């Protein structure tokens, strides 16, 4: 890997980035937009159909509700990937994660409600991940799914689940392939943002103590923005 390629994987994104916020609750869409519009260009949509109309190659981050009337968030995500859009996607939803997320091609899974600071950090994280190589992004996506499932199910239930076991095996292969690169990224100042929701899991698997390792990432209960989507 060249020096320029390594720099592009870890440097803080200089441009604002364009974020498309999609939720069938107009109030929630407006609230998320207000949380982000001082630092990013924000587009909004209140349905899956409108999301696909607003979507373009200019969109860097897609914040997507799962449960919407008409075209669901899952269907929007599938269309986004089928049509080759290269935006980073976070599912922001009140739907608790289940093993159906294993094959979904998102980058992060966020269960509502979400606080302003958490939302802003997730967007920054996804913008930074966009600069990572494909293998690194895939490792972070897979790890995000594992973290989401482990936050809901106990260890015994997951150990008996074939899809979860395959997901773990997939992560192990990606870790073996990218161990040195991930260790380099963890040691950088922006690692807490790059890894955001998966930092603790990555550090555990890498056996590397990097920046931010002493501060566990927690989901707080007194958050803003609840909804049933």
TrEMBL record:
Pfam families: HalX, Response_reg. The modification 4-aspartylphosphate is found at residue 65. Residues 18-127 form the Response regulatory domain. One of its GO terms (biological process) is regulation of DNA-templated transcription. SMART domains: REC. Keywords: Coiled coil, DNA-binding, Phosphoprotein, Transcription, Transcription regulation, Two-component regulatory system. This is Response regulator.
